Write the structure tokens for this entry.
Amino acid sequence: MTAAATCIAFQSAKIGGDEAVRLRHESQNPRHGHTMTEGQSSMLEMRSERLENRSRLMREFMQDIGGPVRSGENRARWVERVAFAAGLSYRRAKSVWYREPVRIDRDELDRAEAAAHHAKQAEIAELRARLDKLEKDIAETDALASGITPASSPLAHGQS
């Protein structure tokens, strides 16, 4: 019998049943300075890893949603913008971003993932539009450099 178990057995005999149950719980609870069994320890580590993974994922989704801080925007406004897009409260988003201990539910993670996907799709559409404009500008520049005036150019219509 370990020292903690001996102490519990002695105290159980000395006091009533409910108090003994409380003491037994405290002896197994690491917050009271006692050790946990190996199984309890590994379960707690697995749970901790899952929560850390959710926090890490949520922060990644927040970064995807918000992108870089915009000109004239501070981090608080960025968090507010991201929270709105992800369907989170400002306080919740701030807690996640600043790595405060917070439990992230699966539905919150799913909403943030959907918002991040939407933000990435919008970014892709914007980049495609910019690429199309650049390709058009390059074609016009090449045409002007070779002496051929494209039909859409103001010079083709006699305007200067």
